Automatic annotation (TrEMBL):
<dbReference type="InterPro" id="IPR000515">
    <property type="entry name" value="MetI-like"/>
</dbReference>
<keyword id="KW-0813">Transport</keyword>
<keyword id="KW-0472">Membrane</keyword>
<comment type="similarity">
    <text>Belongs to the binding-protein-dependent transport system permease family.</text>
</comment>
<feature type="domain" description="ABC transmembrane type-1">
    <location>
        <begin position="19"/>
        <end position="198"/>
    </location>
</feature>
<dbReference type="InterPro" id="IPR035906">
    <property type="entry name" value="MetI-like_sf"/>
</dbReference>
<dbReference type="GO" id="GO:0005886">
    <property type="term" value="C:plasma membrane"/>
</dbReference>
<keyword id="KW-0812">Transmembrane</keyword>
<dbReference type="InterPro" id="IPR051204">
    <property type="entry name" value="ABC_transp_perm/SBD"/>
</dbReference>
<protein>
    <submittedName>
        <fullName>ABC transporter permease</fullName>
    </submittedName>
</protein>
<feature type="transmembrane region" description="Helical">
    <location>
        <begin position="23"/>
        <end position="42"/>
    </location>
</feature>
<dbReference type="Pfam" id="PF00528">
    <property type="entry name" value="BPD_transp_1"/>
</dbReference>
<feature type="transmembrane region" description="Helical">
    <location>
        <begin position="184"/>
        <end position="206"/>
    </location>
</feature>
<dbReference type="GO" id="GO:0031460">
    <property type="term" value="P:glycine betaine transport"/>
</dbReference>
<keyword id="KW-1133">Transmembrane helix</keyword>
<dbReference type="GO" id="GO:0055085">
    <property type="term" value="P:transmembrane transport"/>
</dbReference>
Amino acid sequence: MNRLWHAFAIDWENILARTQEHIILSFIAVAAACIIAIPMGIYLTRHKRLAQPILGVVSVIQTIPSLAMFGFMIPLFGIGTLPAAVALTLYALLPVLQNTYVGINEVDPALIESGRGMGMTKWQVLRMVQLPIATGFIMSGVRLVAVQTISGATIATYIAAGGLGDIITRGIAMIDTVSILEGAIPVCVLVLVVNLLLLGLGKLLMPKGLRKR
């Protein structure tokens, strides 16, 4: 344990730099996935014939092994942050897309009819009724994606994207448990902190009447 604390004290600048790279890469991937998947999920609730084919295609992406996915990115985008961000974004699409689609579809039809009875357009019903009620489902998907992405970003080191994976792979190469923990511990801390932050954000975004007391 003393050796571990000593290693952190000596190498803290490198750990901090790699942590920053890891956060940036993960944030880009999660944000891009949300920007793509949430509107797509909304679109699929309006065009349900397309839902199963599109969800099926996106599901197939999840079956591709991580190293293979990063390998496919190299001929297209080279090495570095861009191919890693694209690969992580592709992996992150399904949970957000599926939860958005399911969350909106699970809204009580009576509430939708009530909104229409008050003179709301279909987009007003979506914005004022369906999306607020579906917030819990959507944020659950975002939380899952964030955790998966932070964990998966460690593999990005194999295509020179940096991050805490650099420290972990260095430790593996040296067969040095302390070096491995220098990278693994910050990854675990990031996962826990981000999960708690998104859990709190989800509660804030959810309508007061739906919050569990």
